[in-house]
UniProtKB/TrEMBL annotation:
Alphabetically ordered keywords of this record: Pyridoxal phosphate
Transport is among the record's keywords: no
NCBIfam families: am_tr_V_VC1184 (TIGR01976)
Limits of the Aminotransferase class V domain: 25-403
Record bears the keyword Electron transport: no
Species this protein is from: Mesorhizobium intechi
PANTHER family: CYSTEINE DESULFURASE, PYRIDOXAL PHOSPHATE (PLP)-DEPENDENT ASPARTATE AMINOTRANSFERASE SUPERFAMILY
Domain of life: Bacteria
Protein name, UniProt field: Cysteine desulfurase-like protein
Pfam families: Aminotran_5 (PF00266)
């Protein structure tokens, strides 16, 4: 079988945990996924057997360097990079983006323009907004289309000018789930001479990333969103990052990628990062792929997408049955390829948190709020202090879990409406 849900779930110890005998349903995945046993083992093994700083000549420091090198190569394979020297690993997406924004700021001058979207997570907005404030840059806002739920090429083209220096885009929304056509958007921006910075945090767990095909200059993701540890990864095109001067200690390395990786690295988390990438490779191998790690990863996404999409469709169909409920995102079954399985909704007259609290009490884990999709809720006119109910599927979830979740949504909303009447 190409995809065995039983085999997949067997790799994740957290999926079998119970609380006072009650099962857990993990649908909080857009905020962070559970990890396979292999990831936890890799972190533990690194701490217990290769725990040393880098740069020495004894066994543990040499082994620690191998862990670091392996992590960079693993992510080069995961993202389709040409070299591990293009992979920058750090604390998280937001920290890395702040760091890179300040580095790029050294190349900008007052009056230069950047384009930000109304669709992005705040981690790909605030660093650039604050940089613009510091340097006297001009920010132009790119809304998403509320019919297609995507950023449209014509809208981007209309904002570009000879002064545009950077376009910050997201690959997939953490609220609507919509996938942007990053390749075509990037091509338009590049024709205007702008750099393109892509937030792929929400796309990375659900689709194969090929930075060469996309044509962007930077792409960032977070390992804890694709079954790994809490660590961030930034890819930068070699010819771009080679010419940048980052903020760093005077005596630290000027090599790539070291000059962008501040301080002592999280070596044990890098071990877990490699294990997370290898989890995808193992999934691809189980589906019949015997080629390179990159080829196995591609196969893994092929089978996991085919498994996730019917679950997303079942969730969307089940929510449609509820009067007064609005799904904020793509609902057309013919357009499942244009979204990841993250589904957000609001219900007329009911505060999202009240729904989520009741469902959390049933050990169904999901989120309410704006979820840092600050610009999205404002464009849609959703009160930011309330936000949405967000349900996020990963490929370890089951049809039975989706059915049980839908039953809970129906029951909770009916109860809350009865209490209100």
């Amino acid at each position: 079988m190409d995809f065995s849900i039983e085999a997949v779930r067997g790799k994740f110890p957290a999926l079998s945990l119970t609380d006072k005998g009650r099962r857990r349903i993990y649908l909080d995945n857009p905020a962070g996924t559970q990890v396979p046993q292999a990831v936890a083992d890799a972190v533990s093994r690194c701490l217990l057997t290769t725990n040393a700083n880098l740069g020495g000549y004894f066994e543990t420091t040499i082994a620690a360097q191998s862990v670091v090198d392996e992590a960079h190569q693993a992510m080069a394979d995961f993202l389709g990079a040409t070299s591990p020297e293009e992979i920058i690993i750090g604390a998280n997406m937001t920290t890395l983006t702040y760091h890179m924004s300040r580095t790029l700021g050294r190349t900008l001058k007052p009056g230069d323009e950047m384009i930000l979207t109304r669709m992005d997570h705040e981690g790909n907005v605030s660093p650039w907004l604050q940089l613009a404030e510091d340097l006297g840059l001009v920010v132009r806002w790119l809304p998403f289309d509320e019919k297609s739920w995507q950023v449209e090429e014509e809208a981007l083209a209309g904002l570009l000018s000879s002064k545009t220096r950077l376009v910050a885009l997201n690959y997939a929304s953490n609220l609507t789930g919509s996938i942007n056509r990053v390749r075509s958007l990037t091509a338009i921006a590049k024709r205007a001479g702008a750099l393109v910075y892509v937030d792929a945090v929400q796309f990375a767990p659900h689709g194969l990333i090929d930075v060469q095909e996309l044509g962007c200059d930077f792409l960032i993701c977070s390992a804890y969103k694709f079954f790994g540890p809490h660590i961030g990864v930034l890819w930068g095109r070699r010819e771009i990052i080679d010419g940048l001067k980052p903020y760093k200690c005077r005596c630290s390395s000027n090599g790539l990628p070291e000059r962008f990786e501040l301080g002592t690295p999280q070596i044990e988390l890098m071990a877990g990062l490699t294990a997370a990438v290898d989890y995808f490779a193992e999934l691809g191998a189980a589906a019949g792929e015997s080629g390179s790690r990159r080829q196995k990863i591609a196969r893994a996404f092929g089978v996991s997408i085919a498994y996730e999409n019917p679950l997303a469709l079942r969730l969307i169909d089940g929510l449609f049955d509820i009067p007064g409920l609005t799904i904020h995102g793509i609902t057309d079954p013919k357009r499942l390829a244009d979204r990841v399985p993250t589904v957000s909704f609001t219900v007329e007259g009911i505060v999202p948190e009240t729904i989520v609290r009741q469902m959390n009490a049933e050990n169904i884990f999901l989120w309410s709020g704006h979820n840092y999709a600050w610009e999205i809720v404002h464009q849609l006119g959703i009160p930011a202090e309330q936000g949405v109910v967000r349900i996020g599927i990963a490929h370890y979830n089951t049809a039975a879990e989706i059915n049980e979740t839908l039953e809970s949504v129906h029951r909770v909303i009916a109860m809350l409406r009865q209490q209100r009447s």
